[in-house]
């Protein structure tokens, strides 16, 4: 049952590698943030999606190839991220001289597993066959997935699901998004994006959109023919 307690597993990983160098660090300032003391990024910059991954405690799959080429350290298949928050509690106060430090463990998922397999295939010169990829995936899952229960019990399943749900790590305090921090420009951008979605296929708009039902007809024909 311990393998279903994600928070406990993350805490054990952080304690085990307490003195190890982080995979990367994020420095948070009132109006921008930096990655490993590098270039400054605004919070609405597209690269800020990496902060969403840190919030969700998942490895940023979009940057996995970059991490691999930069030889970023991994610990038991996870990444350790150090957060340094220089933002004051009150908006009018100056940035903190000594930041609030915390560490977060980022875990892999099915998407990162697939990305890793693609990277391994690239290193081998794209020589992997479908069978070899499936066998490799099976071996990775055997080493990383929780033990399989071959005698299912409804009560045990409910307990496991509840443990998994309540033990999911919460959003790091330094990355919790508050409504007051949303800038008017960012809020207006979200409103514009939602308006475009709502106007999709609106006949009053000057668009020549002709819906196509070829895939639907093809599926119905297949069902009627072979069932």
TrEMBL record:
GO molecular function: transcription coregulator activity
GO terms (BP aspect): regulation of transcription by RNA polymerase II
Domain Spt20-like SEP as annotated: residue spans: 19-161
Annotated InterPro entries: Spt20, Spt20-like_SEP
One Gene Ontology term, aspect cellular component: SAGA complex
Name of the protein: Spt20 family-domain-containing protein
Species annotation: Suillus fuscotomentosus
